[in-house]
Design goal:
Helix content: under 10%
Order of helices and strands: EEEEEEEEEEEEEEEEEEEEEEEEEEH
CATH class: Mainly Beta
Radius of gyration: 19 Å
Strand order of the largest sheet: 1-22-19-24-17-14-13
Number of strands: 26
CATH superfamily: Jelly Rolls
Bound molecules: manganese (II) ion
CATH topology: Jelly Rolls
Structural class: mainly beta
Largest sheet: 7 strands, antiparallel
Strand content: over 45%
Distance between the termini: 35 Å
Shape: globular
Number of helices: 1
């Protein structure tokens, strides 16, 4: 194997409401991995009361949101009446398309734990104005390969296909690497990929990974080798290089500043997006539109 080392991108610490998160995508120098355009990491944390996750109603357009948990629970409500109780192993996938609003909260009945990721997938131009819809998949396809178990979040691997609706070639996989094992995962050579160590320890082809950090593996790899001493939970994302220049602002993925201004105004003036009726409390107002430049 003469693959180059993985490119490491430092995460950016911020807050989602009061919940501390690490933002792994987008970061300077890396805006996309395939169609994946956003990756927030939260937890692991424990709590005795209250709601560590409490994101009031807010809009999305031009993307899909993916919520994936390792521990704990999150409840999703959207403006189409969609509802999902997300638990470890379940996939919450919201295709925002032309526009939808949602809220995500820790449910009142909970395990007192929270550990997960939220990702966004940019929709290609041909599909970004599609009608919004919500998918809740209670279980995802599972794969057993030597030394690891894989939950397939998006795309396909080793003959298994995720039921999650995809609009461009994509891969998302949650991998549990067993203690003391070495694993070799097959990759699609036409894809670019990135690896994130969520818990435990991991080395990829001899390179020790820092936790909650994006490691970009580039394109043209046919496989990736991983090894863990104590066991690890790992996120693998990828896809065909997106090939369209996107403009991402707040919760929207668009193409031009004019489009961003229009979708922002629609939210502020209560057009296009419905109400999340179940949520108790005010919705989130859009930030002021600062000077937006084409990326
Ligand atoms: Mn959201």
């Amino acid at each position: 194997m003469d693959d180059a080392p993985l490119e490491q991108y430092a995460p950016h610490a911020t807050l989602l409401g009061e919940l501390p998160i690490r933002r792994l995508l987008p970061v300077r120098q890396r805006r996309l991995v395939g169609p994946w355009c956003f990756l927030d990491r939260y937890g692991p944390l424990t709590f005795a009361g209250g709601k560590p996750m409490d994101v009031a109603p807010h809009p999305h357009a031009g993307l899909q949101t993916v919520t994936w948990l390792l521990d704990g629970e999150v409840v999703h409500h959207d403006s189409l009446g969609g509802e999902g109780l997300i638990r470890p192993g379940a996939l919450s996938l919201m295709t925002a398309g032309s526009g939808i609003a949602h809220a995500e909260e820790s449910p009142g009945e909970n395990s007192g734990k929270l550990n997960g990721v939220q990702l966004w997938v940019a929709l290609p131009d041909a599909h970004r104005h599609t009608a919004a819809h919500y998918e809740h998949h209670a279980e995802m396809p599972q794969l057993e390969l030597p030394g690891c178990r894989i939950n397939l979040i998006a795309g396909e691997m080793a003959g298994q296909v995720s039921p999650a609706q995809a609009y461009s070639p994509i891969l998302g996989a949650s991998i549990t690497v067993d203690r003391g094992r070495e694993v070799e995962l097959p990759l699609q050579g036409a894809f670019e990929h990135a690896v994130v160590l969520l818990t435990g320890d991991l080395s990829v082809e001899g390179q020790e990974l820092a936790r909650d950090t994006l490691y970009y593996a580039g394109t043209a790899r046919r496989q990736i080798g991983m090894r863990s001493r104590e066991g690890a939970r790992v996120l693998l994302i990828g896809g065909a290089p997106f090939g369209e220049t996107i403009l991402m602002w707040w919760n929207f993925v668009a193409r031009t500043p004019e489009e961003i201004a229009a979708v922002r105004l629609d939210w502020e003036e209560h057009r296009r997006f419905g109400d999340v009726k179940v949520y108790r409390g005010p919705r989130i107002s859009a930030p002021e539109l600062m000077h937006l430049r084409r990326s």
